[in-house]
Design brief:
The complex is a heterodimer of chains A (62) and B (464). Chain A is mainly α. In chain A, 52% of the residues lie in helices and 0% in strands. The longest helix of chain A is centred in the middle third of the chain and has 21 residues. Chain A is flat. The N and C termini of chain A lie far apart (50 Å). Chain B has 464 residues and is α/β, with parallel strands linked by helices. Chain B is built from 16 helices and eleven strands. An eleven-stranded mixed beta sheet of chain B has the order 1-3-2-4-6-5-10-11-9-7-8, with helices on both faces. Chain B starts with 6 loop residues before the first helix and ends with a helix. The chains are: A mainly alpha (62), B alpha/beta (464). Chains A and B meet through helix 1 and helix 2 of A and helix 10, helix 11 and helix 12 of B.
């Protein structure tokens, strides 16, 4: 279980986004942040090193 | 007004010159004027364009050179599809005066097939934020009960088709935005395989999850519309360069021997559905078995795994698309879209990368699981439409989405109405096929519709 984030730490993350968030908007996002954290934890469960994303760069030739 | 017609039925009448495209279009226009004050399905009615298109179709029919089954058929476009010279807003204040100079590729294709453009249809803001009450236009309402939600984001198309304002329309589906409104409005809607339909000229939400596709009253009508929409588009980097099959050719075949896998844990334990929805799916499975299909269960990873990867990718990509506007015009967005997308600014790069690595594994899992099946069956929505004022703001995140797994993996998936729930509103199931196997999806959905009588019943409001 991911520990809950503090208001101060969330303020720092908010500032890093560069978005003009009001205090009320920050509070709204802080309330749902644990749901996001849980999803991040779920996708971050160990994967085999060779598990490659389904994105392959192919240079375009014209 | 003419009676309610499917595209297939109208096409036959038009071809035999028993129905005039102008008469059909005028009937739809009359219905829009009568009902759309309640439904808010249209953001813009293009009456003159519709009548001009209809007259052109009629001239072709009378000259003996019709363009095909869509010639003279009135449709609407979700207002994230660019339409040359016609306002395209994304249902947002940010694009309130935006007039594109080119059609989206799929709009061009549908016009080339002879469709009549009735206008631009409501959407959730930029195909994600809704239902919202703080935008320049109100949200669409469900024709089965206007106090209830249409689902979204192709909300206007769902409402307009169900009420007979149009015979079909375009939608887009990034996390379920075709299948959701199709389900709650009691119509059919298909999210085709990723890459089958061009996205060029459609306002992007999430580059690797966005799909365009049709919505209509019946599965057969969806097949007819998809026939016109599908095909390689070199201007879309995700477009698949492969032949387009005949989507209606297999509709007359039965489903005997069709192998159906039921992803039971998705709708029984991962995100339990209502008793009515569950009963509708069970009855549909009985119908398929009675028709000769072989039905057995299949197990995938928990739906939350698909949902987490899909939600992270969608939110991060949508944030990237909207970041410049979010920084400059944050408060011009409606609250729902703004807050949902702002969350993307809090997703670390590593989480996005892990999500797309996870997607790869889930694609492989689904491919392997489908090796022994022709289609899968699951739920598309958890139940009947809730009241429009009772839709939770974070409902998109709080519980795993029944539709997201097939956006994440790109597999084609379709909502099909399975009747009506305890509250009298539509319920549905979701059918899923292998990539580019839309014909089998249509075959199964059509066989089910033919076996049942749900397509005979229209919303009472539309019949008034």
């Amino acid at each position: 279980m991911t520990p809950p984030i503090s208001v101060e730490a969330f303020d720092t993350l908010s500032a890093q986004t560069g978005l003009p968030l009001s205090d009320a908007q920050k509070a709204t996002l802080l309330a749902v942040y644990p749901t996001l954290q849980a999803m991040i934890a779920r996708v971050s469960a160990p994967l085999p090193r060779e598990a490659e994303p389904g994105l392959i760069f192919v240079p375009e030739v014209r | 007004m003419t009676e309610f017609l499917t595209i297939a039925a109208a096409a036959k009448l038009i071809a035999s010159k028993e129905l005039s495209p102008v008469e059909l279009t005028q009937s739809c226009l009359d219905r829009v004027k009568k009902l759309d004050g309640t439904l808010n399905a249209f953001l813009m009615l293009t009456e003159e364009r519709a009548l001009a298109d209809a007259r052109a179709a009629e001239a072709r029919v009378m000259a003996g050179v019709p363009l095909g089954p869509l010639d003279g058929i009135p449709i609407g476009h979700k207002d994230i599809y660019n339409t040359a010279g016609i306002r395209t807003t994304g249902h947002s204040k940010l694009l309130e005066t935006n007039v594109p100079d080119k059609d989206a590729v799929t709009v061009t294709k549908l016009a080339a097939a002879g469709t009549v453009m009735m206008g631009k249809l409501a959407t959730h803001e930029f195909a994600m934020g809704g239902p919202s009450f703080d935008l320049p236009w109100p949200p669409a309402r469900n024709p089965w009960n206007p106090e209830h939600f249409t689902a979204g984001s192709s909300s206007g198309t769902g409402a307009a088709v169900a009420a007979g304002l149009v015979l079909g329309g375009t939608g887009s589906d990034t996390g379920g935005s075709i299948r959701g409104p199709a389900a709650l409005c009691g119509i059919a809607g298909i999210k085709p395989t990723y890459g089958l339909c061009s996205r060029t000229g459609v306002l992007p939400l999430s580059f690797t999850m966005d799909h365009t596709g049709p919505m209509a009253w019946t599965v057969e009508d969806c097949a007819l519309l998809l026939q016109a929409m599908a095909g390689h588009d070199p201007s879309d980097p995700a477009s698949a360069n492969r032949p387009v099959p005949d989507f209606t050719a297999g509709l007359s075949k039965d489903v005997k021997g069709l192998r159906i896998g039921v992803v039971r844990h998705f709708f029984e334990s991962d995100h339990p559905v209502s008793p009515s929805t569950q009963a509708g799916i069970e009855h549909a499975l009985d119908v398929f078995e009675h028709l000769g299909a072989e039905v057995s269960d299949v197990t995938l990873s928990p739906m939350a795994d698909y949902h987490a990867a899909g939600s992270i990718i969608l939110t991060a990509e949508a944030y990237a698309v909207h970041e410049p506007w979010l920084k400059e015009r944050f408060n011009d967005y409606g609250e729902l879209f703004r807050d949902r997308i702002a969350l993307g600014g809090f997703i670390p790069a590593s989480a996005y990368v892990q999500a797309i690595r996870r997607r790869r594994l889930l694609c492989l899992e689904l491919t392997a699981a489908m090796a022994d099946f022709d289609i899968l069956v699951s739920a598309s929505q958890t139940g009947e439409a809730p009241k429009i004022t009772e839709v939770p703001k974070w409902g998109n995140l709080e519980k795993p989405s029944l539709t997201m797994p097939f956006n994440l993996t790109g597999f084609p998936a379709m909502s099909v109405c399975t009747g009506f729930g305890a509250g009298g509103l539509p319920i549905c199931m979701q059918l899923i096929a292998k990539p580019f196997a839309e014909p089998v999806l249509f075959r199964a959905g059509h066989a089910y519709e033919m076996a049942m009588g749900w397509r005979e019943k229209r919303p009472a409001l539309a019949g008034e």
